[in-house]
# Entry
Amino acid sequence: MLSTNIFLIGPMGAGKTTIGKMLANELGSPFLDSDHEIEERSGADIPWIFDVEGERGFRDREAQVIEEICDQQGIILATGGGVVGRPENRSHLRKSGFVVYLKTPVSVQLQRTRNDKKRPLLQRPDREAFLATLLEERDPLYRSIADLVLNTDKLSLRQIIREIIQAAGLSIR
# Structure
């Protein structure tokens, strides 16, 4: 079991879930996805939560889940892209594990999310401009808590996993 937590942060379409599952498998550690945890605990999917409670309601739920997950030990966590928007989330992540910012250009985000109907914030005609604005706002926040920044468009999944393991000072089981 890992002696620390590894938290994956970054924008939508950065590959946090895919990389998190691979990393957890490689290290023999439990994998959690904060969005899935929110859905499981609330019994509703994220689009429904956004429709009924708005983004603020979703972010309130997200903050509670992040706080609870950060109390665990030895997990790999893929977070939602907007998790860094709240100072308390940044604080919990920063003090509770090794934080990896999976940096991804807007062009790659667009490609990876082009058929996605489940992300409420992307259900708009101006996706590219919207993603560019989000990245501009959130990039400094991601960087402020990251122990490691990886450009996901320049590396293979294997290379990303290897970089994270090495930077976190871990060994493969």
Observations:
- The chain has a mean pLDDT of 92.
- The domain at 6-167 is CATH 3.40.50.300 (Rossmann fold).
- Helices lie at 16-27, 34-42, 46-70, 87-96, 106-113, 127-145, 157-167.
- The chain is about 55% helix and 10% strand.
